[in-house]
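Dear colleagues,

As part of the handover before I leave the project, I'm documenting each prediction I ran so the next person doesn't have to rerun anything. This entry is a single chain, and its sequence is reproduced below.
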Amino acid sequence: MSDLEDYDCPLCMEELDISERNFKPCPCGYQICRFCWHHIKEELNGKCPACRRAYSDDNVQFTPITPAELTRIKTERKFKEREKKEIESMSRKHLANVRVVQKNLIYVIGLTARVTEEVLRSSDYFGQYGKITKVVINRRHAQNSTSTHPGQSPTVGVYITFARREDAARAIAAVDGSMSDGRILRATYGTTKYCTYYLRNMPCQNPNCMYLHEPGEEADTFTREDLASGWVHLYIERIESGLKLNRSCCHTYLYLNLTFYIGNTTSKIIMHNWSTRHQSHKFWEPRVHLCHRQMNQRSHPLKHLRLR
């Protein structure tokens, strides 16, 4: 057995102590820990599990480890652990460019800049869909909206984390495409990235870190290249099928708004329509606006509150 390998007791499967590396209680050479050896002698039949020979103190072979050998073993163990961490860190480097859809996190745009966290958590707003664990208001979105559309009141982007995935799905289904203060709200799943400490195989120092510290589901993982490929259309279909959204306009079209936010880069795939009567990919075509008939028929799921 190599010095770099772990020594495990074949009976209790616990790692042998360094002092037990040269402990062999039977002439056949079958090696176990001293705890199991004592348990067999005192509580069981007192025989070697391998050769069935009776244990005897006279047959015990034990050579104490010298200080030099002990130092060598500890050095080799540290080297092995450091090498293992380096290999894991190398295997995680590609995850820095990966984003994972977080099913209990939603991102909403179109809300007035006067909105507060307390209002968003209330039962009149997103609190009606389930327990909310965290709310983050993106004020940078308000600055961008005023510079892009001068003269219009600024809006903000809001990240809302629910305790349950089901609550987030209900919130998206109800809010996406609805009206608030004369604006159309857009709601979709939020994305997250891997924690930098996780990528370096180190314990995270932030107890409130919202990034991933374990491998995400492969089906919900994508890269920037995926956004430019046709794969994203299949992803849209899967999300739509999973949520069972009812986006009807004259019982003909279903609409889905899916926005991916990756760092400072925002890639949007907006308003694709799909014929409910012909479930075929050839009926995919882009649309830019919701028809007025649909907007008039839909009721706003969030009660209008005057924000001061």
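The domain at 96-297 is CATH 3.30.70.330 (Alpha-Beta Plaits). Residues 108 and 187 are 4 Å apart (CA to CA).

All the best with the project,
I.
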